[in-house]
Design a protein that fits this description.
Radius of gyration: 18 Å
Number of domains: 1
Largest sheet: none
Distance between the termini: 36 Å
Number of strands: 0
Order of helices and strands: HHHHHHHHHH
Structural class: mainly alpha
Strand content: under 5%
């Protein structure tokens, strides 16, 4: 839950500064900060990916996860959900508070880093991904609040409930997860995180959400190999 609390604090601070400062933060500064976060995200993702005992497990998880994700249209579904909710709130200035709340909640909670970070925080107590996400959300809250007002700050409650709930569920699932399962899930998540880094660096627009099923395929592969008494390392 530490990562979620950091995220909540970042959104509150960013939203408060955005409400006060408005559009005074130069675009060059915002771009440079985002690129810096992209570089750090790539580094964290690579570090996680290199923890694997067998890169074939990660490759199989990512590829099978991507196929399932596209079949289930996960990325399209996430985007459609955001667009549908935002469209319903475009009702003029009277709905600015609600629009700020829902728009910020979607941006901060609908995404692969939210799921990856919350699961990792709950499973092993590592909140580094959520700390990076907190920096991103803090600057996003600053920008959003400058136009949508204090409704953006209310999204901190959504983050607390949603991310906190995911972390709690992951902590309960820890009982059924062995260390090799967590390691390969972490490595698969690292590859997905590098995809997010590429987006932040404006290098490649990857449909990262489609790879999310790979997080659940990785421990399943480890369990199958264990049942067949096949060693993880080649």
């Amino acid at each position: 839950m530490i990562g979620t609390l950091i995220n909540v604090a970042a959104v509150l601070v960013g939203g408060c500064l955005g409400t006060i400062l408005g559009q005074r933060l130069p675009e060059k500064v915002r771009n440079t900060v985002m690129h810096g976060l992209g570089l750090v995200t790539m580094t964290v993702g690579l570090t996680m990916a290199l923890q694997t005992a067998n890169v074939l497990i990660v490759m199989g998880s990512v590829l099978l996860g991507g196929i399932l994700g596209e079949w289930w249209r996960i990325e399209d579904g996430l985007q459609a959900l955001g667009e549908r909710l935002q469209a319903r709130l475009r009702m003029g200035s009277a709905s600015t508070l609600a629009q700020g709340f829902v728009t910020a909640s979607l941006i901060f909670c609908v995404g692969p880093m939210t799921i990856l970070g919350s699961i990792r925080d709950g499973l092993v107590g590592d909140y580094s991904l959520l700390a990076i996400k907190s920096m991103l959300d803090g600057f996003a809250a600053l920008a959003l609040a400058s136009t949508l007002g204090v409704g953006v700050m209310l999204s901190a409650l959504t983050i607390l409930i949603y991310q906190g709930g995911l972390s709690l569920l992951a902590s309960f699932a820890q009982v059924a997860m062995t260390e090799p399962m967590i390691t390969e899930m972490t490595a698969t998540g690292g590859v997905i995180i590098m995809g997010i880094g590429l987006i932040l660096l404006d290098l490649k627009r990857i449909r990262v959400g489609s790879f999310l099923p790979g997080l659940f395929i990785a421990p399943l592969i480890v369990a199958i190999l264990g049942a067949l008494h096949i060693p993880l390392a080649p």
